[in-house]
Design goal:
Elements (H helix, E strand, L loop, with lengths): L19 E3 L26 H14 L2 H6 L3 H6 L2 H15 L1 E8 L5 E3 L2 E12 L4 E13 L2 E4 L28 E2 L5 E3 L5 E6 L7 H15 L3 H6 L12 E7 H7 L9 E3 L1
Antiparallel strand pairs: 1-5, 2-4, 3-4, 4-5, 5-6, 7-8, 9-10, 9-11
Length: 269
């Protein structure tokens, strides 16, 4: 497994308790990065629990972690730095191969009791490998003076992350049969040593470098460049960890595609 993060107390992502997987999303919230109903930014109102919760969820969909962190209450900010807060979301997104997150929320479900409030909502994670992951979550809020802040912890990303748990994506490759060309010559043999090829997005280079890399990998792996790109396109361009993109026969790689070894972005295991 190339994405190596310890998973404590949870299974692989596909088995997360309470997850719903679907082929599409019918969320009422706008997708991340999509145009809003007005040209200007929506003013943030923290004098009400509704205002703070709405601003927090809008910022999450837009990937605006700085705004999200600014909306946390004093206790949450004291417990978690902005860097650690942002990294929690980025690590979870990378492990899930997340491309987007959308939320569906009904403000009439907000429940308040004195200086505390809770707003249930549904989050849909759009992922490359696992499809849509749908989770029922909630925003907990606390009032201090005339300001409402988010009482944040990692359960607002996924409930399974509480207690220091992390995510690990584990992929089991099926057994492979022999593959032959039209003349009956073998291309891939089931009993030959194989090598897992991984790619580090931060080292891919510019568009021309990426195009050459994808073209060479396409010939080796015998899949389209777009299929290969889809394996890592959900990661940030500065992501510096290997992402598995395919397996190749060691003998075929060594004899016919040795130039592949010259790419700085690739790793071979």
């Amino acid at each position: 497994m190339i994405i190596k993060r310890p998973a404590v107390g949870i299974l692989a992502l596909a088995l997360l308790a309470g997850c719903t997987f679907s082929g599409g999303s019918s969320q009422t919230a706008a997708p991340a990065g999509g145009p809003g109903p007005t040209a200007g930014p929506t003013p943030i109102t923290t004098s009400t629990a509704e205002g703070t919760a709405s601003a927090f969820l809008d910022a999450w969909q837009a990937g605006d972690f700085a705004t999200m962190y600014s909306l946390l209450d004093v206790a949450a900010q004291a417990a978690t730095t902005q860097e650690a807060f942002t990294q929690q979301y980025m690590d979870a997104a990378a492990s899930m191969t997340q491309q987007s997150v959308t939320v569906s929320v009904d403000m009439t479900r907000l429940v308040s009791a004195g200086a505390n409030a809770r707003l249930p909502f549904t989050a849909t994670y759009g992922t490359i490998v696992l499809g849509d992951i749908v989770k029922d979550l909630s925003v907990n809020l606390r009032q201090t003076g005339d300001r409402w802040g988010v009482s944040w912890d990692t359960s607002m990303i996924l409930p399974e992350l509480v207690g220091g748990n992390t995510l690990s994506l584990q992929v089991d490759a099926p057994a492979r049969a022999n593959i032959y060309d039209r003349n009956g010559n073998w291309l891939v043999q089931s009993n030959t040593p194989t090598v897992t090829i991984s790619l580090i997005p931060a080292l891919v280079g510019d568009e021309n470098d990426e195009a050459r890399l994808l073209d060479d990998l396409s010939h080796l792996l015998r899949v389209s460049p777009q299929v290969i790109k889809n394996q890592y396109s959900g990661y940030a361009s500065d992501y510096d960890q290997p992402v598995a993109i395919g397996d190749a026969d060691q003998e075929n790689l060594d004899n016919n595609f040795r130039d592949i070894y010259t790419y700085q972005a690739l790793r071979f295991d």
